[in-house]
Write a structure and sequence with these properties.
There is one protein chain. The protein is an alpha/beta fold. The protein folds into two domains: 6-201, Peroxisomal Thiolase, Chain A, domain 1 (3-Layer(aba) Sandwich), CATH 3.40.47.10; 210-370, Peroxisomal Thiolase, Chain A, domain 1 (3-Layer(aba) Sandwich), CATH 3.40.47. The chain is built from eleven helices and 13 strands. A five-stranded mixed beta sheet has the order 1-7-6-4-5, sandwiched between helices. Strands 8-13-12-11 form a four-stranded mixed beta sheet, with helices on both faces. Helix 4 (113-120) links the parallel strand 4 and strand 5 (127-132).
Length: 371
């Protein structure tokens, strides 16, 4: 089978609300006055130090600071980013033949968020697919769209990823007396945002802004999950343990194994990037930019020797880019790619690898583009 080139016709990003500085996180997400004295002491004593060392100066939350209400859903975050990408591509929403939406949760159990985005964009008819994934969702979604376009099934595709972390982080959501340190610390790292790509098949052979390839891999079997968020079927198996009991146990809280993430995410990223560059038939040090899922500057510095120096790349080729966005999960890499393109940092002829590691069950996914 012969394949046609697939190009990035447009990129877009969206950050909700005004920037939230480190000293205003609790003002926006809500205080933890019902948490245990131990957690309150942890927040008061460790929070300022962690935030100062994180390298993050501000982030965005889809929360009204006056009411505490959410200001956006996954589909409305995606809509804002999608419209920017469509504008850059000089295309109308109805020209999209395929929509691939990824997010770690969704607006409703049903209908799917992909169909809600289609409606928001007023697209009368298209194919739509929703990918349930956290940080690896971007690479997975691009792979689906890339394969659908290069084989000729569709001519155009819209790919979006939305991160609505504040849904899990607001004080009103948490069973505060049952919080542990991880639940509290997640409020210092995660943020909200969305990114989008418009992809276009080019039967004429035009390779400007070409997707060179995609990569997705899961190596989680046998490993405990590195991130969990309960509240779904596996938590409701027993008739005697339903939503009230799940709330009492705080089984729905978002939790991360920081030790496992610090230990395993870097080597997993290194292994994936080595496999990906080999698959592409290029040397890793010839890649001009690596746009990677790096949550904090501490993680960036601690993992530098593990993957960046071993790949033969410099800090300029693989920057920490979350200073004014915080960590928006999978959306981060699309936010940063869009920023690079609009600022002219990604130049004609340069190659960028856009890649994320997901600790939930140890997955890795990304794509490469030659601009």
């Amino acid at each position: 089978m012969s394949f046609v080139p697939v190009r990035v016709a447009g990129t877009g990003s969206f950050l909700p609300g005004a920037p939230v500085s480190n000293d205003r996180i609790e003002m926006v997400l809500g205080t933890l006055e019902k948490a245990s004295p131990k957690i309150k002491n942890f927040v008061e004593n460790q929070g300022p130090k962690f935030l100062e060392q994180s390298g993050i100066q501000s982030r965005h939350f889809a929360v009204d600071p006056e009411t505490g209400d959410l200001t956006h859903t996954h589909s409305s975050l995606a809509e804002n980013a999608a419209r920017q990408a469509l504008e850059m591509a000089c295309m109308k929403p109805e020209e999209m033949e395929l929509i691939v939406v990824s997010c770690p949760t969704y607006d409703h159990g049903t209908p799917p968020t992909s169909a809600l985005l289609q409606e928001r964009l007023n697209i009368p008819s298209c194919a739509e697919i929703e990918v349930h994934s956290n940080c690896a969702g971007v690479g997975k979604s691009v792979q689906i769209a890339f394969d659908a376009l290069r084989t000729g099934r569709y001519r155009t595709a819209l790919v979006t990823y939305s991160q609505l972390s504040s849904m899990f982080l607001r004080g009103c959501y948490l069973n505060q007396p049952k919080m542990d340190r991880v639940h509290a610390a997640m409020r210092w790292i995660l943020a909200d945002g969305a990114g989008a790509l418009v992809l276009e098949a080019r039967p004429d052979g035009n390779t400007e802004h070409e997707i060179l390839g995609t990569f997705t891999e899961s190596v989680g079997p046998g490993r405990p999950p590195g991130m969990t968020a309960g509240g779904y079927a596996a938590d409701l198996i027993k008739a005697s343990c339903q939503i009230p009991q799940m709330y009492d146990k705080a089984g729905y809280h978002l939790w991360q194994d920081f030790a496992a993430t610090n230990r395993d995410a870097g080597p997993l990223l290194l292994d994936a990037l080595c496999k990906f560059t080999k698959q592409l038939g290029i040397n890793s040090d010839t890649v001009d930019h690596y746009v990677l899922s790096i949550p904090t500057i501490q993680f960036y510095n601690s993992q530098y020797d593990t993957f960046m120096s071993r790949l033969g790349i410099t800090r300029e080729q693989g920057k920490f880019r979350g200073v004014n966005t915080g960590y928006c999960g999978g959306a981060s890499i699309l936010l940063h790619l869009d920023e690079m393109i609009r600022a002219g940092e990604l130049k004609a002829g340069q190659t960028a690898i856009v890649h994320s590691v997901e600790s939930s069950k140890w997955m890795s996914a990304g794509f490469a583009v030659k601009w």
